[in-house]
Amino acid sequence: MARHSLLLALLLFAAVATAAMAVAASDADDILIRQVVPDVGEAEEEDNLLNAEHHFASFKAKFAKTYATKEEHDHRFGVFKSNLRRARLHAKLDPSAVHGVTKFSDLTPAEFRRQFLGLKPLRFPAHAQKAPILPTKDLPKDFDWRDKGAVTNVKDQGACGSCWSFSTTGALEGAHYLATGELVSLSEQQLVDCDHVCDPEEYGACDSGCNGGLMNNAFEYILQSGGVQKEKDYPYTGRDGTCKFDKTKVAATVSNYSVVSLDEEQIAANLVKNGPLAGNLIVL
């Protein structure tokens, strides 16, 4: 989630040093990402076209996948084939994107959401300020902060629902780069371990490590705590742990954050002016 794309963001924050954020879109009603399961005859024919057994064997070898029983193996093979069909459909719908086998290919969409997506329902605090409307007349057609050195390498949250923490640090890494000229990888684990800030307007909406969180809460935590350490000083474990925050090793701070309009041109303008925008997305 460390990569942030203008066209993928649905709801955004900008923070100053100046970071930004966005909420996840549910795939529940999106027909483009539903499972595509043909009838039995079609399925057998398509399995042959997909060469599913070969791909499943390669998948198991590459990602060291093992299953306790034959029943579990056969179930996972069935899920894998369904995901191959879905990837094939997506490739037809959007040839510009790359669709294929990943380490998640033996999981159903529901299992993936349950295990890896930790974004909680998002509500904005009353004091959250709105970003000013920016001019959009001369926006570039293409713009990528990766090419300008403002985005760190891809990170892996593992089997921890900490996407919210990666979204927060990714935005702040870009903002810190724009403010200082230095690209620093920041600590998601600090947020997982130490950030337990709650939204005062939503009972129970508290950041809770691998059990999920909210980016606006995380920005509030960073404001209150005084900053975030470097990744190398507080490395990621992908597990809930005891807070080990050392304020003497703060690498980046936030002075404020604001809500960006849902208008795509405003998102583009904020991206160009304020730096990488963070987004929480359901990607299957």
Automatic annotation (TrEMBL):
Domain of life: Eukaryota
Cross-referenced CDD domains: Peptidase_C1A (cd02248)
Peptidase C1A papain C-terminal domain: residues covered: 139-284
Keywords of this entry: Disulfide bond, Glycoprotein, Hydrolase, Protease, Signal, Thiol protease, Zymogen
Gene Ontology cellular-component terms listed: lytic vacuole
Signal peptide interval: 1-22
The keyword Signal belongs to this UniProt entry's keyword annotation: yes
SUPFAM superfamilies, sorted: Cysteine proteinases
Domain Cathepsin propeptide inhibitor: residue ranges: 56-112
GO molecular function term, any single one: cysteine-type peptidase activity
Keyword Flavoprotein in annotation: no
One Pfam family from the record: Inhibitor_I29
GO BP terms: proteolysis
Family: Belongs to the peptidase C1 family.
Protein name stated in the entry: Cysteine proteinase
Organism expressing this protein natively: Glycine max
